[in-house]
Amino acid sequence: MSSLRTSRTRLVGAATTVVLAALSLTACNDGTGVHAESVAAASTPAATPAANSPAPAKSSAPASASGTSATEATAATGTPRSAAGTSTPAAKAPASAGKPVTCEGSVTRTVAAPLNRPVNHMLLTVTNTGSRTCYLYGYPAVRFGEAQAVPPVIGDSQPQAVVTLAPGESGYASVNLSATDGSGTNGHTVKSLTVYFQGRSGNESVGTGAHPSLPAKGVYVDDSLKVTYWQQSMDDAVSW
Question: DSSP letters along 193-209, please?
Answer without folding.
Answer: EEEEEE-SSSSSEEEEE
